[in-house]
Amino acid sequence: MPTFCAPDGTRLAYRVHGNGGSDGDSDCHDAPVVCVPGGPADSRYLGDLGGLSAHRRLVVLDLRGTGRSAVPDDASSYRCDRLVADIEALRTHLGLSRIDLLAHSAGANLATRYAARHPKRIGRLALIAPGTRALGITISGEARRELARLRGAEPWFPAAFAALEAITGGTGSDWEAIGPFLYGRWDAAAQQHLMASRPENEEAVARFAAEGAFAPDATRAALAGLGAPVLLLAGEFDVNSPPGSVAEAAGSFPDAALVVQPGAGHYPWLDDADRFVATVVAFLE
Predict the structure, then answer these.
(1) DSSP-derived secondary structure for the chain
(2) Contact criterion met (CB below 8 Å) for 104 and 128
(3) Residue 24 has pLDDT above 70, yes or no
(4) CA 162, CA 80: separation in Å to the nearest integer?
(5) How many Cβ atoms sit within 10 Å of the Cβ of residue 118?
(6) Read out DSSP for 183-241?
(7) pLDDT above 50 (res 22)
(8) How far is it, in rounded angstroms, from Cα 106 to Cα 127?
């Protein structure tokens, strides 16, 4: 697995999927797409994003302290705003003047902060089932429960909904029990994927959103001048990143396209790979 050095000397790793061509300006369709996982978790859960690597080479970063990237000496560097420098170091390492950047879930907060700080380094920005804390958008428990009720006919619904009610009400913490709400189909593949996507570095998760990680007012002000096109893709049934909150986030970008993938949850490339890839490829090209 290739590696590079972050500005503080931490050795970071990334995976490469596909052979889309040589590095170059991001206006070229052969240039790689830099992918940022959520969690923070080992990026292996992204796979090749449902076959997106057949169309563009994917450079998938393991955030510091996850996957094969090293644990930093300074644990405070797990904070979202401080991770921006790691994305910029990867861009420099790849020799790109601009990058097409794709981010999933919590990783979208990092990508948003990167776009705000380095707007001229973004070719295109794709936010998949995005977290919205960087923009100051919060999601109410009732909004999550209302979306969850759409799955009321599923055999797993009663137990999963009870767990969701407990979590949103502040009396529960059984996150595994609400796993079915994150997938369009709760089958064996989804269950296996849920296990693989679980974050293993608890400190990285805890410090990612530590005080000072987000500056929503400043971020939105900076994004007002972003010239790059932005795709925000939400899953119809995603209780983690509900379509309503993703639509609200779209309003923070001057050139944004909102797509809600029917029948999808938090991992739309698993629920309907063909539809997901077609949407993202059309946007990137």
Answers:
(1) --EEE-TTS-EEEEEEES-------TTSTTSPEEEE-STT--GGGGTTGGGGGGTS-EEEE--TTSTTSPPPS-GGGGSHHHHHHHHHHHHHHHT-SSEEEEEETTHHHHHHHHHHH-GGGEEEEEEES---GGGT----HHHHHHHHGGGTTSTTHHHHHHHHHHHHTTS---GGGGGGGGSSS-SHHHHHHHHHTS---HHHHHHHT-TTS--HHHHHHHHTT--S-EEEEEETT-SSS-HHHHHHHHTTSSSEEEEEETT--S-HHHH-HHHHHHHHHHHH-
(2) yes
(3) no
(4) 32
(5) 17
(6) SSS-SHHHHHHHHHTS---HHHHHHHT-TTS--HHHHHHHHTT--S-EEEEEETT-SSS
(7) no
(8) 10
Q: To the nearest 10°, the Cα dihedral for 68, 1, 21, 115?
A: 20
Q: What is the pLDDT of residue 20?
A: 57
- What's this model's pTM, rounded to 2 decimal places? 0.95
| Token pair listed for 225 | 């001048």
At 141-182, the pLDDT tens digits run 999 999 999 999 999 999 999 999 999 999 988 999 999 999
Cα dihedral across residues 201, 206, 212, 215: positive or negative: positive
CA–chain centroid gap for 202, Å, is: 18
pLDDT tens digits, 102-116: 999 999 999 999 999
pLDDT in tens, 261-275: 999 999 999 999 999
Tokens 């450079």 sit on residue: 59
Phi/psi for 172 (5° steps) reads: -140, 165
